[in-house]
């Protein structure tokens, strides 16, 4: 029975999509075609097993990405039950920049409707508990890195967890990818092409964004009628079509200052816990 061998579990808007796009060049990895493998977050064990058997084999190292997984202890326990020896990879980004980038991403996806980033980021999350909106709009909680990593290490052995900084990946992607390949047990025998995945963009239509990125009655109807490959291709084209040419807002100095002050003690906690020098975050 096929298992997921490697999970890139976060953090959202910390380069995980770019990392996966680079790793697709490896002939030693099997990776899902979709942007995310969200089924551990949804908590449906039957769906997890069905999707894994459908997407993966036994000849290669099976890798999946679920960029919000690191925040959910229940989802991580499901992953542990699926494969107790799975390797967990985390990319962490300076939390002020990550929170704002995540806000822009939520706007693009239709999960966020508030146009004021200050009130959105420091306000309550959107949606109900367990919803895709909540998972993607709890901007502040996502940056509690020490808290999340401590919970992760209560579930998985430390030797099976690898943490990288987004800023290091951005400066020297080859060094990080080479080390990552060594950690997950595949050869680094491919060329790295620099690219930016999931670049911030505002949606032309909030309605279309919402229906493309949420389980609604409308898209569930299409799911029942159309083949999987056709649906995924159509969704990709519609997402690209719905990107506005309007420039996304910039992070204001006021919001930056507020977030940096908010995260300062949490960054100190992370620095002490992982014994990392996070001077580049200051």
Offer a concise description of the structure.
With 282 residues, this protein is α/β, with parallel strands linked by helices. It has helices spanning 16-23, 39-42, 45-55, 73-82, 95-109, 117-121, 132-137, 145-153, 166-171, 173-184, 206-212, 217-225, 228-241, 253-274, and strands at residues 6-10, 29-31, 61-65, 87-92, 161-165.
Indicate the percent of residues in helices.
Answer: 40-55%
Number of helices: 14
Mean pLDDT, as a whole number? 88
Please give the alpha-carbon distance between the first and last residues: 46 Å
What CATH calls the topology is Rossmann fold
Compute the CA-based radius of gyration. 18 Å
CATH superfamily: P-loop containing nucleotide triphosphate hydrolases
Spans where pLDDT lies below 50 across 5 or more residues: none
Second rung of CATH, namely the architecture: 3-Layer(aba) Sandwich
The domain tally reads 1
| Coarse structural class | alpha/beta
- What gross morphology would you assign? globular
CATH class designation: Alpha Beta
Beta-strand portion reads: 5-15%
Which secondary structure elements does this structure contain, and how are they paired or packed?
Blueprint: E1 6-10, H1 16-23, E2 29-31, H2 39-42, H3 45-55, E3 61-65, H4 73-82, E4 87-92, H5 95-109, H6 117-121, H7 132-137, H8 145-153, E5 161-165, H9 166-171, H10 173-184, H11 206-212, H12 217-225, H13 228-241, H14 253-274
Parallel strand pairs: 1-3, 1-4, 2-3, 4-5
């Amino acid at each position: 029975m096929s298992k997921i061998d490697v999970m890139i579990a976060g953090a959202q808007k910390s380069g995980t999509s770019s990392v996966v796009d680079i790793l697709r060049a490896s002939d030693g990895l099997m990776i899902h075609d979709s942007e995310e493998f969200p089924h551990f977050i949804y908590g449906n064990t039957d769906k997890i097993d069905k999707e894994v058997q459908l997407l993966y084999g036994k000849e290669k190292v099976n890798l999946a990405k679920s960029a919000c997984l690191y925040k959910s202890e229940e989802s991580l326990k499901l992953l542990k039950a699926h494969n107790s020896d799975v390797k967990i990879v985390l990319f962490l980004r300076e939390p002020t920049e990550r929170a704002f980038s995540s806000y822009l991403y939520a706007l693009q996806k239709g999960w966020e409707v508030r146009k004021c980033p200050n009130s959105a980021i420091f306000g309550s999350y959107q949606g109900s508990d367990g919803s895709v909106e909540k998972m993607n709009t709890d901007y502040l909680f996502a940056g509690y890195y020490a808290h999340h990593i401590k919970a992760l290490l209560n579930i998985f052995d430390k030797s099976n967890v690898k943490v990288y900084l987004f800023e290091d990946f951005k400066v020297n992607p080859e060094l990080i990818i080479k080390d990552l390949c060594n950690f997950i047990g595949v050869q680094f025998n491919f060329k790295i092409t620099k690219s930016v995945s999931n670049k911030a963009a505002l949606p032309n239509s909030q309605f279309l964004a919402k229906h493309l990125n949420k389980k609604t009655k409308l898209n569930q109807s299409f799911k029942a009628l159309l083949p999987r490959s056709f649906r995924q291709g159509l969704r990709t084209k519609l997402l690209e079509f719905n990107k506005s040419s309007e420039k996304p807002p910039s992070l204001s100095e006021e919001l930056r200052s507020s977030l940096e002050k908010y995260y300062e003690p949490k960054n100190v906690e992370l620095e002490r816990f992982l014994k990392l020098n996070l001077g580049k975050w200051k």
